[in-house]
Amino acid sequence: TGAQFTDPATSVEKMEELVRNETRYNWDKFSAQNELVLESFKRSNLTYEVMDAYHTNILRPDLHDRGDCLHTCLPNDNTYASFLHHMLLNQYDTINNMLLMDEETDR
Question: How far apart are CA 28 and CA 17, in angstroms?
Fold first, then answer.
């Protein structure tokens, strides 16, 4: 549609409909491409964790320049840094709790 958004969206369903009908940026292919990447990770021996930013991205079309949903264009935006920080803290807490449990078991 090429619509320029100036505010956050309020409906995931309406934004998903827009994504299904917009072909200029291949938005309609993102879901399938994400699934391919996830399947590759699942088949690998890698340990990974997915940062799910789906709702953050689909509900904030106002942060994307010229309809480009791959890049958030808000100066000084630290949304993804905050997500990553949260994920790292959760991982640290999980490892720390496991170590504490091991110490208690050894006693």
Answer: 10
